[in-house]
Amino acid sequence: MMELNGKTVVLTGASGGIGSALALEFCAEGAQVIAVGRRPAALEALRQRAAGRPGRLQPLVADINCARDRARIAEVATAPDALIHAAALGSFGLFVNSEAGEREAMFHTNVLAPMALTQALLPALLKRPESRVLAVGSTFGSLAHPGFAAYSASKFALRGFIEALGREHADSGLVAQWIAPRATDTAFNPPNVVALNKALGTHVDAVDEVAAQIVHALRAGTRRRQLGWPEKLFAWLNGAFPTLVDRGLRSALPVVRTHAAVDRRPSLPPKSFAAAPSPAQVTPAFDRRTAPTPTSSVIRPLAEGTAPTPEPRSPAPQSVSELGQC
Ligand SMILES: NC(=O)c1ccc[n+]([C@@H]2O[C@H](COP(=O)([O-])OP(=O)(O)OC[C@H]3O[C@@H](n4cnc5c(N)ncnc54)[C@H](OP(=O)(O)O)[C@@H]3O)[C@@H](O)[C@H]2O)c1
């Protein structure tokens, strides 16, 4: 068991639902949490909630897709004991309607940025006698679900990375962990996904329960865990007898199609690496979340006493060229 008291944990997605709950759990255990997110006010509100717990929360405003921001995270986290990847983008809709830019943004955020950040922190993590890289996965990283093609693909890829990383460092004190929640009650799930879960009878976990299980897995050094039953069985079944799962999900198709047709964002012009628009051309107007993308050149620990203000969620970047802006 890893004792968390006095340990340094770098946590991405700290401003999100599962990340916030994890940050508070880590602080309760006496850890120092470097809490990474893009929304300063959300991180400041979290810092205030963590005050009074034995640990300490240090907000760090950063976009993990930005190389300069990742370098800054590595600069701040000089002696990390654990790196937790909780930041991610989700999307729901039929693949035929999906956008190239959206898929690219998802792979950057869910796969390439976690890999790059891991590489940046790896030398420091390997200096510790005991360390962890923990990816918050998903059931869809073991069982690809209709309506979630890009998300499932990104989580499968992340799982592959974590497995290879763990095997590459099997003779060291570093443990790479894949801990996969099932559906969890956070803002990650837009209304049509909430409705889909309800229609399919999918169990939705409370965020604190999920965070407690992830912290327990981190301490125990559990390499792989699917949370929830029957998801644990289905994920196993998908590996061993995928045709059985094919059949089960085929019968869910009409429900998936119905909900995928709801709340779909208006179509965007196709984007590609070659023809990506300039940031000025990328209008967030189509996005439900209309906040401007934070300029990520600044990673700043928030000033003590900064008043938290309500803050819209950050829009997903829509192209690779936009991802490079930092
Ligand atoms: N909720 C579920 O049903 C569910 C189920 C299974 C697995 N998961 C996984 O659990 C993890 C946490 O999900 P959640 O439910 O807590 O989602 P959430 O509430 O939407 O939080 C997502 C977090 O990711 C951060 N993020 C996104 N892009 C970023 C970027 N480029 N740079 C820095 N931070 C970025 C967001 O930061 P800002 O908000 O500050 O931009 C936010 O803190 C994800 O990996 C997700 O795949 C969720």
Description:
With 326 residues, the protein is of the alpha/beta class. It has one domain (8-305): NAD(P)-binding Rossmann-like Domain (Rossmann fold), CATH 3.40.50.720. It has 10 helices and 7 strands. It has helices at 17-28, 40-50, 67-76, 100-127, 149-168, 191-200, 207-220, 231-240, 242-260, 320-323, and strands at 8-12, 32-37, 56-61, 82-85, 131-136, 174-180, 224-226. It has a 7-stranded parallel sheet with strand order 3-2-1-4-5-6-7, sandwiched between helices. Helix 4 (100-127) links the parallel strand 4 and strand 5. The protein binds NADP nicotinamide-adenine-dinucleotide phosphate. The site of NADP nicotinamide-adenine-dinucleotide phosphate (NAP) has 30 residues, from helix 1.
CATH architecture: 3-Layer(aba) Sandwich
Structural shape = globular
Bound molecules: NADP nicotinamide-adenine-dinucleotide phosphate
In DSSP terms (H or I, runs of 4 or more residues), the helix count works out at 10
The SSE order reads EHEHEHEHEHEHHEHHH
Strand order, main sheet: write it out: 3-2-1-4-5-6-7
Q: Into which percent range does the helicity of residues fall?
A: 40-55%
Taking all Cα atoms into account, the compactness measure Rg is: 19 Å
Structural domains: how many:
1
The mean pLDDT is 86
Portion of residues in beta strands equals 5-15%
Total strands: the figure is 7
The first-level CATH class name = Alpha Beta
Describe the sheet with the most strands. Answer: 7 strands, parallel
Given helix and strand content, the structural type is: alpha/beta
Stretches where pLDDT falls below 50 for ≥5 residues? 266-310
Specify the CATH homologous superfamily.
NAD(P)-binding Rossmann-like Domain
CA-to-CA gap between the ends? 39 Å
Instruction: Predict the CATH topology.
Output: Rossmann fold
